[in-house]
């Protein structure tokens, strides 16, 4: 005997969030806009950067990452037809004040700044890339490691009293050595031991959607390796600029750093 849920699925009555895994629509700086498109719209871009498109059923969607620097107000996307306007809503992020014992991580020496500039370019080139979709539907995401989220994304940060850029990822406190897994299928496009980020893995999920995993104690994958969802990519650590062991999970979409929690099931 079919349950009511199964009958509704077979009849196509369930809402899109129940049938497939579109991320949460949150139109704020650092958020995501999930935009239904007219049938004649086949290309969407923002400031020359291609925007991810997905069509899990008869409806096509643009999934747009809103940069953290975006002011409140109207933002316009370009298409092959009419432009699309979306409204960016106000959103207040918390502040975070941290004490860093190693002063090099607060005021780096020139040699360290040069190293950081090289590493930042390497990562930014990955964020700006745009590859083919890796599956017909938008990828479903799971937690990359066990632990309670600190809701640290977007926080204005102060290191030893000095203001720095807002936090562009999500911190998950966890013990050193705990497994970190791929939250969705993807290809490893970056592996490194960086000045600020420590041991790091970057995974491309297709169409400008990139995951970043930082401060690892061990990396279990290599560049070019294809990962299945749930496959171990490394272990939690405390490498780079940290105050304790945790996983920094970052997400970038159309070269905008966005809140990873928006990709997880509600």
Automatic annotation (TrEMBL):
A molecular-function term among this protein's GO annotations: metalloendopeptidase activity
Domain Peptidase family M23 N-terminal: 30-82
CDD domains, alphabetized: M23_peptidase
Endpoints of the signal sequence: 1-21
Keywords: Signal
M23ase beta-sheet core domain sequence ranges: 166-260
InterPro entries named in the record: Cell_wall_metabolism_enzyme, Dup_hybrid_motif, M23ase_b-sheet_dom, Peptidase_M23_N
SUPFAM superfamilies to which the protein is assigned, alphabetical: Duplicated hybrid motif (SSF51261)
Organism superkingdom: Bacteria
PANTHER family listed in its UniProt record: M23 FAMILY METALLOPEPTIDASE, PEPTIDASE-RELATED
Protein name: M23 family metallopeptidase
Organism: Acinetobacter defluvii
Lineage: Bacteria, Pseudomonadati, Pseudomonadota, Gammaproteobacteria, Moraxellales
